Amino acid sequence: MIRVFLSLSAIALLLCGCAQTPLRGTGDLGVVVERASGSLQIIESDTRTSLARVEGLGDLSHASVVFSRDQRYAYVFGRDGGLSKVDLLTAKIDRRIIQGGNSIGGAISQDGTLIAVSNYEPGGVKVFDARTLAQVADIPSTPLSDGQKRSRVVGLVDAPGQRFVFSLFDTGEIWTADFSQGLTPRIERFTAIGQQPYDALITPDGRYYMAGLFGEDGMAQLDLWHPEHGVKRVLGHYGRGQARLPVYKMPHLEGWALADQQAFVPAVGHHQVLVMDAASWQQTDAIDLAGQPVFVTARPDGRQLWVNFAYPDNDRVQVIDTQTHAIVADLRPGPAVLHMEFTARGDQLWLSARDGGEVQVWNPYRLERLGTLPAASPSGIFFSSRAHKPGY
Amino acid sequence: MERHSTAISMTALLFAFSSFVPAAPDSQRQAQLQHLLDQDCGACHGLYLTGGLGPPLTRQALSGKSRDSLIATVTLGRPGSAMPGWAALLGPDDIRWLVDRLLQGKPAS
Fold it and tell me: How would CATH label the architecture of B24-104?
């Protein structure tokens, strides 16, 4: 009798194995990069909790993440050339390859089928099938004069029309790779765009690609609606200027802000955020800050900007009003604030305090901290809502 | 941090005056410097110093480079590249200690 009961229970369990993992979505999920331990935490913004940790992702210093369009998979680009596809539902690595020697970031194509990775070593861009991670294209960058190496590639973004756009740091170029006709891309090269483009941004409509220059002032702008017009120099005063202050950490242009017809970008080396008119691309203001800005991240409604800083001011975050350009909050969330990420609708801001060993969740309207989660040397925070943001 | 490095510099100065031997950073400062090396130098040179925007700084990569030239690079930066001079943030003892650490080939802790 007991045995029959047990068997029935076993069958019942088998049939209802699904009951152990109830159906759920992934739209409120995200990942936190734990850079020193090569792991990710999967986080849930609804409950402000960590659901799982995924390990074995290699060297995640300077790692970045994009998401599949079904928001189930996170593609993680590691410094060591690792490309990992992580399943947010099972909290497991679905696939992982080492695609290069030294990698800096990646992008997912407009249709979600291609993953592009920009590499320092070997210099160039490699493109993979998003489902299988099989390599489908290799785009070597321009060889350097030493005959050994090729230019390092930075500022890789996706653009409308199944294109990728990227910059060549060492040789001062912007390239577009058009995959709309198949897996053999049509490459267009723009040379002599300026010295040492270090990162780039693309406007939310995907029209303007703009690379920040480290070696000289200004930004190199490509109008993707009119590539035949070539690359123009805008914001001529943007850059390090006459007083070339030491830059302790390169600013990032991702998450730059476009609000109220103005664009806000971090200055290079100077303790300022620069403001430009988003129609004429002329500088209109410079906002003085506590340190060298790294990320200038707009609240999704565009009303406020959150700015973090390079060492030694990286324990601070300042909040700027985009209308008045006043600093409305001067926060000290903790040691080494590396990254900030808003939920898609802006009700929460998550930030990583690397040396505090924690991730913090803030209410960005009340400027109140809602909670903290422990994390090992956290750096980047990425929500799955990025899946539907072009340029992310 | 700033106050601390001032204090260290003062101590270093006193120590130098009293014995004419360069002062090594104390153990607390060494821990801070190791952290700076891993995390902040690592931002450009890689967490494992295998290179990135900046060149690799592994023991192998630095072999044949003189200690003095490395100290000069860290102190003054390298014009034309993204390498900043760290003299505004670090004392000479700190920089010597960091360079020696690199020459020993210390991996990320």
Answer: Orthogonal Bundle (1.10)
